[in-house]
Amino acid sequence: MTLFGTSVPFYKMQGSGNDFIVIDNREARVAEADMADWARKVCARAFGVYGDGLFFLDESDDPALDYRWHFFNSDGSRAEMCGNGSRCAGRLAHAIGLAPAEHVFGTDAGPIKAKVLTEGPDAGRVKVQLTLPLGIETDVELDVDGHPLTVQFADTGVPHVVVFVDDVEGVDIMDLGPKLRYHPRFAPAGSNVNFAQVVDGKTMLLRTYERGVEGETYACGTGAAATQLLANTLGLTGPRATLTTTGGDQLTVFIEGGTVFLQGAAELTFKGELYLEPMGLK
Model confidence over 142-155: pLDDT tens digits? Predict the structure, then answer.
């Protein structure tokens, strides 16, 4: 207890422009039933820290896991997985002594293998092995406002629609994004939506409309993974591609033996104290 009331330490991290608030729940001991409310209030603009999402790093009862995370979007919805967030989790867990540089942690989508790179030109970046992709569908024909549209689909921990376009900058993402995110074809859960431009067999440009955030984000790791997986399936790219995101950062996606690996930056931007009473938390 301080002059400003009860406080809880937090970290602020960003992965390719996706920003997250992280709480070490070994200390905070926030009940799982209260976590969604925390996400809505802590991620709120002006009244909170603000971020695309909030996740808690917690102890695990499973000896095969170094720790477990609980991930929530800024609207309080719980997400099975987040590629950029998983890299941030891996780097922070290593930094605070929760896990070694190479470790495994639990998510709602299954165990995630993370490796914090500590040497060479990629030092500080994190490589994660994502869960096995599910539900791959190519050339799905949709009706969108009376117009036909061909999309691709894959679940890389969370569901993703991918639309390959000639000019990604020309897409009206705030118009078409929600129409695909809430399209009956993907009900009831809905889907994230990615618009990708293939530059060559090793390079793509990517923009993502994320459910839960309900808008365009600077980057989406699982979206990059789904996009590369589908581009490779369609013969548009080789097994490794670099995707430049809206925020200008680059994500590298490897496909090896049906397994998808995602590599990119994960940075600690600041840390501080959350004062609970002003945000209506306890």
Answer: 999 999 999 999 99
Tell me if residue 220 is catalytic.
yes
Spatial CA neighbour of 110 closest among 74, 68, 73: 68
Q: Which of 13, 30, 220, 253 is catalytic?
A: 220
pLDDT digits (tens, 9 = 90+) for 260-273: 999 999 999 999 99
Positions of the chain with pLDDT under 70: 1-3
Global confidence as pTM? 0.86
Sequence length of the chain is: 282
Structure tokens at 280: 């209506």
Domains of the chain, CATH where assigned: 7-131+267-279 (3.10.310.10), 134-257 (3.10.310.10)
| CB neighbourhood size of 118 (10 A) | 12
Active-site residue, from 8, 30, 39, 82:
82
Contact indicator for 198, 164 with CB cutoff of 8 Å: yes
Is cis: bond before 178, omega within 30 of 0? no
Q: Is 82 a catalytic residue?
A: yes
